[in-house]
Every structure is written in structure tokens, then in C-alpha cells.
């Protein structure tokens, strides 16, 4: 809507004039003087006072000057006598509030300070202003829970230990010279984390009433329960003052918010606290109550004060006027002061007279016509109050009381009226209609109708929730007494609904009906004043102006601007435009060249025309002729973050002699005149991202335009901007719509109002209507959707939310990111069912063939079909088709797979919008292999119906080289027979096979070539027969040959024929391939070199060795798998050895002498050792050992005896090796038969 200002008739202007001028004054020293004058003019003149050409400022000399203006009479009062400090009362100071504390939020257990800065005139350090703090209109006093400080230009209230009791409206009232000034704001205190999940919040406002000598009544307010379970009761705790030990007063939770505590000690002081209970646990304790002292409340009533001669006070107790009475009178007025379902509190008036001794009471009760019963037998009551807990439901009781002291008991009091416990269903009814209206951009005004039944109402709890959410949150945490409340701390632009509950001593009422949903927006108002009026161009008769939009739009869009002008030497403003200007730039025509003009601007919205801006600085109407460009204008900010921001501006209207080619940007800290140029070279676009800022620092910017002639005028300084992101700031998110596959940019604003719009830009140029993109908005979220994105859409995209505190963001769309999103978009628009495994087959037992595939995920609505050779196949005889949603498997089973099943198999899947297809070609070799396997499995199935081999014949070789031919059998019974065959000849093993053990084996010891052949095992009974064959020949036979890995190193043994090289093995057979070599030449068996072997070893005999036979010998043993080599060096040039001379056997008669002599050789000279029966022989008279010339060794035994019989040996050895020769000696007695000679086993021992 456009607005037109109302025309106002202007009076004839009049120049200012003095009707009564100042006149000279002569005064006494230190006396005040008053100067007067009267002026006229239209409009009303502004009067300024000067002294010596300097303006008079009362603030520079507090108390000295006072300026007044009454009915056109202007006066200046000069006080020569300044009052002394001690004579100034704080209320006579001039105090103004500057920065004021706002609505605050705290948490139980935390701390918070409310601060208001002040300007005090005069500012005297020892005389602070008089300040008072109030909470809910109740004056606060300094304490440990409320610390107050005034001075240093501020008034501060600190709450160091927050509790919900501290919630409320806080008011600071300052007493000033002109009365009082005050400021108020609400403090919200939320519950601390619960002691257990789901436990209620702490009770609040705990106070003690009806204080007596041993009794108090504790009352409190219930906490708000929003999402917690209902409160089932409360525990009351007490603590003596000065102690930290809390004692629980009630064994069972009390259900009302009052509890009588008795049994206190007279004269002792106590604190009380309360804990709430529900099914989830016990709450945190409340703040403790103020200290109370257990005293007789009636004590002061029994005192009388008598004045004598108007000067003296005489205090007399009523007891002194009773006379000498020992036994007290009976109590009176017995009644119930508190009646609840949990308990009843009895009260009565103390007796008169009281007697001359300490007094206590005895209480009796009666129900109906029964007998009176005493109820306080365990304790003495000193107070006229007593709580009774054990009354029966539905019963009526009467009570009477006796007064007792040490002298005796009074008569019983009159019985009370019948008393009966009442039900506790006493909560108020639900509040009435709830209405929410707009208040500010973060608060809502909520009001409601009071409940129909108040029932001692304590206040109200207000709850709220975001529209569409199920979770409620508390708006206040302390019962609010009025039926209207301002809910603060809401999200700007979000929609909320509210509900209200009433509170009394019994708890919370039912919830009211919910209010209508309301969006958090400021209430409608006229916009604030525009500002920053700037001259952009002038041609001598017109001036082009620009200005900045109002900081506050007033809750609706600013749609009009009105400009006024005046000559700088005139006080009369004239309208420039009668028709509203919609843009923030305007050319003012019909001006006089050389004249100075001032301008002001007003903004308008739905609510009307706002206040005018401050007048601009005087601007001279003078034609611009400079060649450099004019100033850029409309500097604004976007994407303000903690270390960066984006500065934007508009091109100058006046371009100079040539077009603008770029811009230079300067920056300075607020308050500094030292500007830093951020761009080394002029940038050719009208935006700049500034980085490297310091968080929390405030900066100002200016822009200078550049053309071919040079650098032009700098722009007007920008508004100071603080490098700090708005709370809850979000960034632009690039994504792909999961439903449509559209590529989009999305932004969620942290705040928004009803008039806000999302303005999208590419490279900081507004996009507007464009077929390539479409912008949509819903609530606080805006989305920019690309129609057909490609490389032309790459660039920097930004979005600004209008009518907010600078909510904005940007995102650079790169080629890689776009390609990734395009791939995802294609996948969404052309969805496929993702497969873990494509179509495959497997042959099952019985010869069935299963065709299957597995999807990553299937829905319950999936559909599919199998196509074989272009024909759809369905479940039927011999074919079963099924699927499993949980595993994603789709399968088809063909019971009888034959040659007719050759071809191409395909599965087509439809799952929602997604599709998939997988094929398998079963032709040629692939089909033949599958068919062969199917036929085999069918035969196997038939075979396994009777006794069968679960494992066919196989072999193992034991350590003793026995070949074990084994198999495993299944589905056998006792009658099942088992037979072994070789080449159709039955083999009967020593141990008959035991088929019931499940395994049978045939051992073949010392396996050799003769054991080759085809072995067969036959298993049979009345159900059928199964056969297993194993061919042991060719390569299989070679595999069964003993391994050569057990071969020992070659050993040399001297024999009568010469030298024998021997290689020992676990098992040796001539079928094993062995090759002997001498100096790498193969040796063939001959008379000189004989080759042979036994079951234990392979050997080679060198007969009559000579020097030609010296050298290295080796044997190669091949067992069909590996070749094993052993070698021995027979060079002989260095090794110690026996050349000759020793026999193998010596037979000698008793008493003869035996000489064993031989020749030895070796280099170096070997050592010679003789042994008898493997024991070294030492040289003695009977046995003499000699070694002469390093060549001849002898052993001489004189007069042999039968004890000298045995096995003798000589060991000849040097460092290169040696030889060991054995001789058997037999001694027989004369006349005995000469024994048969027994050959020994000479051995050669050579060390390499």
C-alpha cells in the first residue's frame, strides 16, 4: 500500500528576534545571578547560551549552571556557591539509564548478574545513586542469595546460587532529582538436570508458618511437570541451623503441599526443604527455607506494658496477675485448623490461668459412642497444635484436650465438633480459552480465562510446543499469578501453540485447551527512521541522493519513502515527493546552484509513516565535473561469521570521464582512522569476501571506485559491523531430492519474520525469474532447484533473508560436486534394484538345479518373473519359484534338469519405481558341466539310499612306511558286508573290517612294486551295493614309495675288501631311484665299485682303493616327489687312517703273548687310541701301548688270560678326520677246542 503525506498549511516564517534582551548585572561575590531574555520567531527559535564565545554546558560544571525555558522566557542561573559533598542527598543526583539488562535465562545451581549502566551527574565517587531492586514488586535486600552493587557507572544484582524461587520480574528503581526512573525485565530459571531420568523438578517457595514451641507448618509450591510422570507425593526434610545434617520428617510421601512438623526442640532454629517423588525417582531438593525458631507464639500475648509518668515502661506477665494458682485451667476452642486426607491438625487456645509451672497438653479422641482414647502417649506437647495422621477413612472423630503441669491436670476441654478427613481431589478446574498474540520477534503474549473453580489458586504454569511437534516445554518454572504472560526465548519465525494449568496446594489442574498456532513475529508498528543519506551525483540543478533502509521494518514490508528538503539557513522543511518513492535512491530537481541543502527521509509500511531520519549534513548544489568517478553507495554486509564476511555495494551514479573499471576496498577497526586497503588491485565486481577477521572485533569499510582517470571519492563509511555469527547460523546445503532426483541448494534461516523473503543470487547478482532455477520457500527453509543443471550453473550462490539481523549464507557449486549430484540424480530418476549377486545357479542334491540372485534390499511389494528362452516360466510341476524379503533372494528350482533346459535364463524385478534385470547363459560347455553335475547328483542320491561310501578309497603312509588303503562308509547295518579285492582277487585281512565303525582300512606293509595294481572295496546288503576302486600304479605307485627325507649322512666303513660308503634310511627299496656319483660323474656298479642296499640302507663298496678313488662321493635319492642328496669327501690326503696290518679276529691260547700292530697315516700326524670293549686302554706292564715314528702303532698283551678276551679297536684321528678299526680277540685254555672266528663290523668315522 502506498501512502501520501497529509498537506499541512505553513505559517508565514519569521526571523528570530529578541523581545527582551539581556541586561548587565552587578552582584556580590558568592551570590547567585539570574540572566533572562525573551525571543520570538516562526518556527520557534533555538536559544543557546555562551560565555566568552564558548557554549555553556551544565554538565561540565555540575551545580554551577542551570538553564530553563518557561513560556518563551529563557533563563540562565549561575550559582556562585557549589554545595559541599556531604550536603548532597543521593536522590538529588541526575541519573540516566543507558545499557539495560534484558530478559535473561538461568539454570538451577548456576549464577547470573543483571546489570544496568548509568550516567550520573555529578559523578561523585563517594556518593552512588540510591538504587533499589525488586522481584515481582517485592523489595529485595542484600544477602548471600542476592548481592547488590551500585557504583562505577553501573547498578548490578548478582544471584550466585540460582533456584526457581529466583524466577520473576526484576525491577531496578533509581531515585533521581526529578523523581524515579526504573527498568524491568523477566528472569527465567529452568530446572537443573534431574537426579534420575524422568524424575520431577524440585519444589519451590518453601516456607514455615504457624510457628510454635515444638511445631511448624511447612508449605511449598509444586513444580511444573511437562513431560515427566505425575508427582505422587513429597518428602519434607529438616536441618538445625548451623548443621549440614538433614533429617527426613515424614516416612511416607505427603500428597498435598503442606506438612505439619512436630517434635521440635524449644528455642532451636531450623531450616526446611522439600523433595518431590514420582514413579521415576526423587527430585533434587528445593532451596532451603529461611531460618525459623521454635518458640511459644502466645508468649508475647501474655505480656502487658504499663507506662509510669509517661517515661518508664513496666512489663508484667499475665501469670503474675492470676494469683497463686497451681493447677492450670482447661484449654478452649478445640478445632481442626488443617483438614486433609493425609492428616488433620488440631488447634486450641491455651488455658487461663496457666498455673505456676511449665505446661503441656494431653489429647483424647472418640469415634461415635466409643470410649475416649489418648493419642499422644509418647511425647509431651508444648504447643496448642498437633497433627493427627492415623484417622480412619469415613469415620468422624471428636477431640478434647487437657492442660497438665507438675501439680496436676485440668478438666477436659469441651469436645470439638465432629471432624472427618476429606478427599484430596481439590485441584482447580482447567483454565479457560488461551489466546496468543504477537509481541516481539522472540516473544509471544499469552492470555487466558481464569478457572471456573479457583480453590485457593497459587498461580499458573504455561507450556508451549512448536507446531507439529509432540514435545511440550515449560514456559515458566514458578507459578505466575496473573492471567497473562509474555513467553520469551522463542525462535523467530517459528509457529507455536500454548496451554495453561492452574496450581494450588493439591497440585496441577487439567491442561487447558490449546491455543491457536501463532508465528513469532513483532507486533505491527511504523518503521524506524532511515539513515545514512548520501549524495551520489549533482549537475548544478539536481542532486541524486541515496539512503539506507530502516533498521526495524515495524513488522511489515517497507513500501514507501518520503523526502523533505530545506535550505541550510532555513528552518522550514518542504516536501520533495508527494508520490511515494519505492527505491532507496531519488533525484531532487529544481535546486539552486551554489545553495546548501539539508534532507531528511521517512519510511512507510502498512502501519503508517514512520519517524523522519536525522537531517543530513548540508550539501552544496554544485555540478560535478571531476574526471574520477563518484562514490559507491549502499554498502551492506552478508554472511557475517566469526572470521569473515562479504561486503557488497552499488556502483556509483556519477562515473566521471570514463566507465568504472574496478573498486578498491578499505577497512579499519571501529574508532580508528588507519585504513588498510584489502585489494592490491581493483576488483571488477561489486562484492568482496573479507577473511582473517578477529572474532568479536568491530570494523568499518569504505569503497573507492576506479576509472581510467584515477581513483574517485570514497564511499560513506559503512555501519560498524562485529565479526560474530548470529546464534544458530546455518550454511547452504547442496543435495538431491530423494523423490524427484532434482538437484537443489537448501538453506534454513535461524530467524525469520512475516515480511521476510529469501533472495537468491548467483555471483552476488539477484537471480530473479530464471528458467534454469526455481526458488521455493516453506517456513524457515528455502530451496533453489535446478531445472537441467550443467556447467553453466557453476558458480557462487548466496541467499539473504530480508527483514532480519543479517541472516545469509553462500555456497560455491563446483564441477566435481555437480557431477556427483548428477550421478545421484540419474540413479533416483532411473532407479534400479541393487543386486548383491547376479543370476547364478547351483546343483543341489537329488540333481535339482537352483537358479538364484540376491538383491541388497527388497520390499514386501516386490514383483518379478523368470524368462527362459524368451518364455515366461511360472511355478508348477517340477518348477518352484519363491523369494525371501529378509535376505533379498529370488530363486527358481528345477527338479529334473535335462537337455531341454539348455538356453538363456533371465530374471526381471520391479520394486516400486526401481527395476533390475539379470541373465545367465546356459549353453555349450557351461550347460554340459551343469547337466553332468545334475546327473551325478541324481545318481549319488540313488546310491545313498543303500549302504554307500561317504569317502571313497584313499591312502596314507605311516611312519613305518606302511601304506594304509582306507575308506569311510555310511547308511550301514550289522548285516552289511565289506570285501577287499586286488585285481578281482579277494584279500582277506588279518582283522575283519568293522563297517559299524564307519571306517575300514587295508594295511600294505613294506610297499613295493609287487604291490601295484587295482584295489577294490565292495559294500553291500539287501538294500543295494556300492563299490570303490583305487589304482595303485604309475604315478600313484611312485607317490607311495618311501621318502628319501629320512636318509642319514654318508658313513665310511672299512671292510676286508676296501672301503664302504653307507646311507641309512627308515626304509629302502631298490625301486627307489638312487644315483651314486664320484666327482660329479655317475658311478655304474662294477667289480671295482659295487652298489647295493638292504632294507635299512643303501651302500657302495670301493674294492682295493687307490689314489684314483680319492675325491668327493655323493648319493642322490629320488622318492618321486623330491631328490635328496648326501655327500662324503674321500680325498684322504689329510685324514688319519689305518693303512694295514690288523686282522679282524684273533684267537690265542692262554699264557701266550698277543701283539696287535698296524701302520697308520695322516697329515698332520694323527693321534692313536686303543679301546677294549669301548673302554680306553692304558699302557701297563700287562698291556703295553706304543706309537713309534708317527707311523707304527702297537698293543702288546703279555701272558693273556681269558679276561683279555673281548672286542679291541683302534681309533686313528687328526683334525681332518680318522678311522675306527675293530678286532675281536678270543683267549682259550690249553686243551680246549679253538672257537669259531666271528667277524666284527669295522666302522669308519670321518669328521669333515
Keywords:
single chain, 4 helices, elongated, 4% helix, five-stranded antiparallel β-sheet, mainly beta, 1248 residues, disordered N terminus
Largest sheet: 5 strands, mixed
Q: Unreliable stretches, pLDDT < 50, 5 or more residues?
A: 1-10, 82-86, 1238-1248
Cα end-to-end separation: 119 Å
Number of helices: 4
Overall shape = elongated
Q: What is the C-alpha radius of gyration, as a whole number of Å?
A: 59 Å
Proportion of strand residues: over 45%
Could you give the count of β-strands? 96
Arithmetic mean pLDDT: 86
Strand order of the largest sheet: 8-15-14-10-11
Helix content: under 10%
Structural class comes to: mainly beta
Report on the architecture of this protein.
- This protein has 1248 residues and is mainly beta.
- 4% of the residues lie in helices and 45% in strands.
- The protein has a five-stranded mixed beta sheet, with no helix packed on it.
Write the layout of secondary structure elements.
Elements: E1 14-20, E2 33-42, E3 50-51, E4 54-55, E5 65-70, E6 73-78, E7 94-97, E8 104-107, E9 112-121, E10 130-135, E11 138-139, E12 147-151, E13 154-159, E14 168-176, E15 179-190, E16 204-209, E17 215-221, E18 233-240, E19 247-248, E20 258-262, E21 269-278, E22 281-282, E23 292-293, E24 303-308, E25 312-317, H1 318-321, E26 332-339, E27 344-349, E28 360-367, E29 373-374, E30 385-388, E31 397-405, E32 408-409, E33 434-440, E34 443-448, E35 459-466, E36 473-474, E37 484-487, E38 495-504, E39 507-508, E40 518-519, E41 531-538, E42 543-548, E43 560-567, E44 574-575, E45 585-588, E46 596-605, E47 608-609, E48 619-620, E49 633-638, E50 645-650, E51 660-669, E52 676-677, E53 687-690, E54 698-707, E55 710-714, E56 721-722, E57 733-736, E58 743-748, E59 758-762, E60 765-766, E61 773-778, E62 781-786, E63 795-801, E64 808-813, H2 815-829, E65 835-843, E66 849-855, E67 863-868, E68 871-873, E69 879-884, E70 889-894, E71 903-911, E72 914-922, H3 924-943, E73 948-957, E74 963-970, E75 977-982, E76 985-987, E77 999-1004, ...
Parallel strand pairs: 8-15, 89-96
Antiparallel strand pairs: 1-2, 2-6, 3-4, 5-6, 7-9, 9-13, 10-11, 10-14, 12-13, 14-15, 16-17, 17-20, 18-19, 18-21, 21-22, 21-23, 24-25, 26-27, 27-30, 28-29, 28-31, 31-32, 33-34, 34-37, 35-36, 35-38, 38-39, 38-40, 41-42, 42-45, 43-44, 43-46, 46-47, 46-48, 49-50, 50-53, 51-52, 51-54, 54-55, 54-56, ...
Amino acid at each position: 500500500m502506498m501512502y501520501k503525506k497529509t498537506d499541512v498549511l505553513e505559517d508565514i516564517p519569521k526571523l528570530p528576534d529578541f523581545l527582551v534582551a539581556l541586561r548587565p548585572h552587578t552582584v556580590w561575590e558568592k551570590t547567585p545571578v539570574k540572566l533572562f531574555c525573551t525571543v520570538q520567531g516562526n518556527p520557534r527559535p533555538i536559544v543557546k547560551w555562551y560565555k566568552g564565545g564558548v557554549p555553556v554546558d551544565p554538565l561540565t560544571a555540575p551545580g554551577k549552571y542551570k538553564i530553563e525555558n518557561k513560556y518563551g522566557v529563557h533563563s540562565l542561573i549561575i550559582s556562585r556557591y557549589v554545595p559541599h559533598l556531604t550536603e548532597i542527598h543521593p536522590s538529588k543526583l541526575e541519573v540516566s539509564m543507558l545499557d539495560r539488562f534484558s530478559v535473561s535465562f538461568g539454570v538451577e545451581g548456576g549464577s547470573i548478574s543483571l546489570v544496568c549502566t548509568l550516567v550520573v551527574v555529578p559523578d561523585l565517587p563517594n556518593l552512588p545513586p540510591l538504587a533499589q531492586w525488586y522481584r515481582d514488586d517485592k523489595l529485595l535486600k542484600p544477602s548471600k542469595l542476592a548481592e547488590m552493587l551500585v557504583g562505577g557507572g553501573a547498578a548490578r544484582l548478582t544471584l550466585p546460587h540460582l533456584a526457581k524461587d529466583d524466577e520473576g520480574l526484576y525491577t531496578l528503581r533509581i531515585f533521581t532529582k526529578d523523581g524515579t526512573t526504573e527498568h524491568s525485565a523477566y528472569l527465567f530459571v529452568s530446572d537443573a538436570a534431574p537426579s534420575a531420568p524422568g524424575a520431577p523438578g524440585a519444589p519451590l517457595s518453601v516456607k514455615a508458618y504457624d510457628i510454635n514451641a515444638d511445631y511448624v507448618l511447612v508449605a511449598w509450591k509444586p513444580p511444573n511437570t511437562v513431560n515427566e510422570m505425575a508427582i505422587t507425593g513429597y518428602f519434607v526434610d529438616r536441618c538445625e541451623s548451623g548443621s549440614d545434617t538433614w533429617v527426613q520428617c515424614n516416612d511416607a510421601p505427603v500428597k498435598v503441599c503442606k506438612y505439619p512438623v512436630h517434635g521440635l526442640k524449644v528455642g532451636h532454629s531450623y531450616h526446611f526443604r522439600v523433595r518431590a517423588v514420582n514413579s521415576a525417582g526423587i527430585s533434587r531438593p528445593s532451596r532451603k527455607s529461611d531460618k525459623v525458631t521454635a518458640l511459644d507464639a502466645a508468649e508475647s500475648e501474655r505480656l502487658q506494658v504499663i507506662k509510669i509518668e509517661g517515661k518508664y515502661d513496666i512489663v508484667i506477665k499475665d501469670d503474675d496477675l492470676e494469683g497463686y494458682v497451681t493447677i492450670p485451667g482447661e484449654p478452649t476452642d478445640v478445632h481442626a485448623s488443617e483438614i486433609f486426607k493425609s492428616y488433620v491438625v488440631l488447634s486450641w487456645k491455651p488455658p487461663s490461668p496457666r498455673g505456676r509451672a511449665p505446661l503441656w497438653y494431653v489429647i483424647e479422641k472418640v469415634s461415635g459412642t466409643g470410649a475416649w482414647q489418648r493419642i499422644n502417649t509418647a511425647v509431651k506437647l508444648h504447643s496448642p497444635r498437633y497433627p493427627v495422621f492415623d484417622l480412619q477413612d469415613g469415620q468422624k472423630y471428636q477431640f478434647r484436650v487437657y492442660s497438665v503441669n507438675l501439680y496436676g491436670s485440668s478438666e477436659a476441654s469441651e469436645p470439638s465438633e465432629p471432624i472427618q478427613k476429606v478427599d484430596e481431589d481439590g485441584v482447580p478446574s482447567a483454565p479457560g480459552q488461551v489466546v496468543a498474540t504477537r509481541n516481539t520477534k522472540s516473544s509471544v503474549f499469552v492470555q487466558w480465562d481464569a478457572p471456573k473453580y479457583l480453590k485457593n489458586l497459587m498461580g499458573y504454569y504455561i507450556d508451549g510446543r512448536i507446531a507439529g511437534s509432540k514435545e511440550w516445554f515449560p514456559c515458566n518454572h514458578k507459578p505466575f499469578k496473573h492471567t497473562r504472560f509474555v513467553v520469551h526465548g522463542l525462535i523467530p519465525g517459528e509457529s507455536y501453540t500454548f496451554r495453561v494449568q492452574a496450581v494450588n496446594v493439591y497440585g496441577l489442574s487439567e491442561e487447558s485447551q490449546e491455543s491457536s498456532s501463532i508465528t513469532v513475529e513483532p507486533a505491527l508498528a511504523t518503521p524506524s527512521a532511515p539513515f545514512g543519506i548520501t549524495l551520489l551525483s549533482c549537475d548544478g540543478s539536481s542532486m541524486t541522493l541515496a539512503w539506507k533502509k530502516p533498521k526495524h521494518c515495524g513488522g511489515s514490508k517497507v513500501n514507501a519513502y518520503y523526502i523533505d528538503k530545506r535550505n541550510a539557513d532555513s528552518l522550514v522543511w518542504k516536501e520533495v515527493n508527494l508520490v511515494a518513492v519505492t527505491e532507496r535512491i531519488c533525484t531532487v530537481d529544481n535546486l539552486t546552484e551554489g545553495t546548501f541543502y539539508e534532507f531528511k527521509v521517512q519510511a512507510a509500511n502498512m502501519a503508517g509513516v514512520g519517524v523522519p531520519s536525522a537531517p543530513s549534513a548540508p550539501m552544496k548544489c554544485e555540478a560535478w565535473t571531476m574526471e574520477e568517478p563518484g562514490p559507491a553507495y549502499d554498502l551492506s554486509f552478508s554472511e557475517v561469521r566469526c572470521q569473515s564476511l562479504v561486503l557488497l555495494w552499488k556502483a556509483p551514479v556519477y562515473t566521471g570521464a570514463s566507465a568504472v573499471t574496478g573498486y578498491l576496498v578499505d577497512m579499519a577497526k571501529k574508532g580508528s582512522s588507519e585504513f588498510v586497503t584489502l585489494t592490491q588491485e581493483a576488483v571488477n565486481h561489486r562484492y568482496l569476501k573479507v577473511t582473517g577477521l578477529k572474532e568479536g572485533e568491530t570494523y568499518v569499510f569504505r569503497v573507492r571506485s576506479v576509472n581510467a582517470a584515477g581513483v574517485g571519492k570514497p564511499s560513506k563509511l559503512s555501519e560498524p559491523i562485529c565479526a560474530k555469527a548470529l546464534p544458530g547460523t546455518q550454511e547452504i546445503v547442496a543435495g538431491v531430492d530423494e523423490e524427484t532426483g532434482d538437484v537443489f541448494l537448501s538453506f534454513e534461516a535461524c530467524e525469520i519474520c512475516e515480511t521476510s523473503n529469501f533472495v537468491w543470487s548467483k555471483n552476488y547478482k539477484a537471480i530473479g525469474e530464471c528458467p534454469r532455477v526455481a526458488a521455493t520457500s516453506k517456513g524457515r527453509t528455502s530451496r533453489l532447484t535446478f531445472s537441467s543443471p550443467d556447467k553453466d550453473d557453476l558458480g557462487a550462490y548466496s541467499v539473504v533473508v530480508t527483514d532480519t539481523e543479517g541472516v545469509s549464507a553462500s555456497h560455491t557449486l563446483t564441477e566435481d560436486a555437480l557431477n556427483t549430484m548428477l550421478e545421484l540424480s540419474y540413479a533416483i530418476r532411473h532407479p534400479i534394484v541393487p543386486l548383491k549377486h547376479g543370476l547364478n545357479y547351483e546343483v543341489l542334491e537329488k540333481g535339482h538345479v537352483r537358479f538364484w540372485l540376491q538383491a541388497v534390499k527388497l520390499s514386501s511389494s516386490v514383483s518379478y518373473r523368470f524368462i527362459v528362452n524368451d518364455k515366461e516360466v511360472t511355478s508348477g510341476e517340477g518348477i518352484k519359484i519363491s523369494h525371501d524379503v529378509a535376505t533379498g533372494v529370488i530363486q527358481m528350482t528345477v527338479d529334473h534338469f535335462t537337455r531341454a533346459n539348455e538356453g538363456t535364463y533371465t530374471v526381471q524385478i520391479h520394486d516400486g519405481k526401481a527395476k533390475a534385470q539379470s541373465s545367465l547363459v546356459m549353453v555349450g560347455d557351461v550347460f554340459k558341466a551343469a547337466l553332468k553335475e545334475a546327473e551325478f547328483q541324481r545318481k549319488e542320491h540313488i546310491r545313498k539310499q543303500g549302504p554307500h561310501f561317504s569317502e571313497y578309497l584313499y591312502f596314507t603312509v605311516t611312519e613305518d612306511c606302511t601304506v594304509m588303503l582306507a575308506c569311510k562308509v555310511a547308511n550301514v547295518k550289522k548285516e552289511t558286508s565289506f570285501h577287499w579285492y586286488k585285481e578281482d582277487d579277494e584279500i582277506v585281512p588279518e582283522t575283519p573290517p568293522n563297517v559299524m565303525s564307519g571306517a575300514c582300512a587295508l594295511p600294505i606293509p613294506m610297499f613295493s612294486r609287487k604291490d601295484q595294481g587295482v584295489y577294490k572295496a565292495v559294500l553291500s546288503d539287501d538294500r543295494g551295493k556300492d563299490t570303490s576302486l583305487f589304482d595303485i600304479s604309475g604315478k600313484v605307485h611312485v607317490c607311495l614309495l618311501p621318502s628319501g627325507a629320512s636318509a642319514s649322512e654318508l658313513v665310511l666303513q672299512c671292510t676286508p675288501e676296501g672301503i664302504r660308503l653307507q646311507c641309512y634310511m627308515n626304509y629302502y627299496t631298490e625301486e627307489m631311484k638312487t644315483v651314486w656319483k664320484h666327482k660329479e660323474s655317475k658311478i655304474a656298479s662294477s667289480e671295482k665299485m659295487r652298489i647295493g642296499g638292504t632294507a635299512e640302507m643303501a651302500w657302495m663298496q670301493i674294492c682295493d682303493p687307490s689314489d684314483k678313488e680319492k675325491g668327493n662321493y655323493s648319493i642322490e635319492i629320488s622318492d618321486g616327489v623330491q631328490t635328496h642328496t648326501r655327500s662324503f669327501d674321500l680325498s684322504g690326503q689329510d685324514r688319519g687312517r689305518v693303512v694295514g696290518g690288523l686282522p679282524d679276529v684273533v684267537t690265542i691260547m692262554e699264557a701266550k703273548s698277543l701283539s696287535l700292530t698296524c701302520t697308520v697315516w695322516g697329515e698332520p700326524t694323527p693321534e692313536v687310541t686303543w679301546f677294549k670293549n669301548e673302554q680306553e686302554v692304558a699302557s701297563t706292564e700287562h698291556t703295553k701301548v706304543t706309537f713309534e715314528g708317527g707311523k707304527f702303532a702297537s698293543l702288546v698283551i703279555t701272558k693273556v688270560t681269558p679276561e683279555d678276551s673281548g672286542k679291541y679297536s683302534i681309533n686313528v684321528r687328526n683334525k681332518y678326520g680318522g678311522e675306527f678299526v675293530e678286532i675281536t680277540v678270543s683267549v682259550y685254555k690249553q686243551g680246549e677246542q679253538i672257537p669259531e672266528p666271528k667277524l666284527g663290523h669295522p666302522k669308519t668315522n670321518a669328521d669333515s
